[in-house]
Design a protein that fits this description.
By secondary structure, the chain is an alpha/beta fold. It contains 12 helices and 7 strands. 31% of the residues are buried.
Length: 295
């Protein structure tokens, strides 16, 4: 049996009362197996050690039995978790022929491990027949992105699979230190997904209308096609408040990519500067706001 991958169900099933702790545990244990029985009264790193690292061989065996992953599938999941999320680029990095790589990807999608997020980038259009495409765009491909649907597998392939050799030394502290170092970056990607869900629920939008945005020049965490216009946002899972420079950077990205904006939205784990709090035109969303996902 696999633990629920839905945040609302996960939050209520394990009776959390602290949103930060709930998001941390959801980012690791959603999609885990029922024998990964965690206790949120301990710190997230204590529980990773107790529930995952000390059960490594059992968990690896269970993943093999549950998902029947080939070596090609494992290698592609490793690439997507750690190096490259763009579809064509990740398949190329797998270093197997295109048809075999594409077949591997299709199997992972069929197993409900991965999903494709479609790009919102607009193709370069020549206005006149004889107009030349700029050199920087020649040979450039708009690429979709690949995303994990199962947070536990995402965690496993981000930190555990590539470090299998450490388990042979039985030195979990080395691996725990690696996890601590990359933890905020890892959580930030899940935080982006939850932020997108919050906007979708709050503005009654369809799933296809909310996601992220990327092109040759910029990456933006939130792009939502609202009924009144585009909602564009940045998400920060850091122990510092968001300041005005983040908003200015977001505005600059929109200008570079010619994105029309109705509302800017900032999502923060640790709150906002006084200067931002005075700006009534910006949507400022802290962790307390994520209770909106529980309704």
């Amino acid at each position: 049996m696999i633990i629920s991958c839905n945040f609302k169900s996960f939050y209520k099933e394990f009776n959390f009362n602290d949103m930060q702790i709930a998001i941390e545990f959801y980012s690791i244990f959603s999609g885990a197996f029922s024998f990964c029985e965690f206790d949120a009264k301990y710190s997230i790193f204590e529980e990773i050690n107790r529930t995952v690292l000390k059960k490594y061989y059992l968990i690896s065996k269970q993943i093999d039995e549950q998902f029947n992953l080939s070596l090609d599938e494992k290698n592609l999941l490793d690439i997507i978790a750690n190096r490259e999320k763009r579809e064509f680029s990740s398949l190329k990095k797998s270093k197997i022929n295109h048809f075999r790589a594409k077949s591997t990807l299709n199997k992972l999608i069929a197993k409900d491990i991965l999903k494709i997020e479609l790009s919102r980038e607009r193709p370069v259009v020549k206005t006149f027949k004889k107009q030349k495409v700029k050199k920087e765009f020649r040979g450039y491909k708009i690429e979709n992105r690949l995303k994990f649907k199962n947070n536990f597998l995402k965690f496993y392939f981000t930190f555990i699979y590539k470090n299998e050799d450490i388990f042979n030394t039985k030195d979990n502290e080395v691996l725990l230190e690696l996890i601590r170092d990359g933890f905020d970056k890892y959580i930030s990607e899940i935080f982006e997904d939850l932020s997108q869900d919050l906007i979708r629920v709050g503005f009654d939008l369809k799933s296809a209308e909310v996601g992220s945005y990327w092109d040759k020049h910029v990456e933006i965490d939130l792009f939502a096609e609202g009924k009144n216009g585009n909602i564009i946002g940045e998400c920060k899972w850091k122990n510092t408040k968001i300041c005005k420079n983040i908003l200015n950077s977001l505005k600059k990205k929109c200008k570079i990519s010619n994105i029309e904006v109705w509302k800017y939205a900032l999502f923060s784990k640790s709150g906002f500067s006084k200067e931002l709090l005075k700006d009534k035109e910006i949507l400022l969303i802290d962790l307390n706001s994520f209770k909106g996902l529980l309704k």
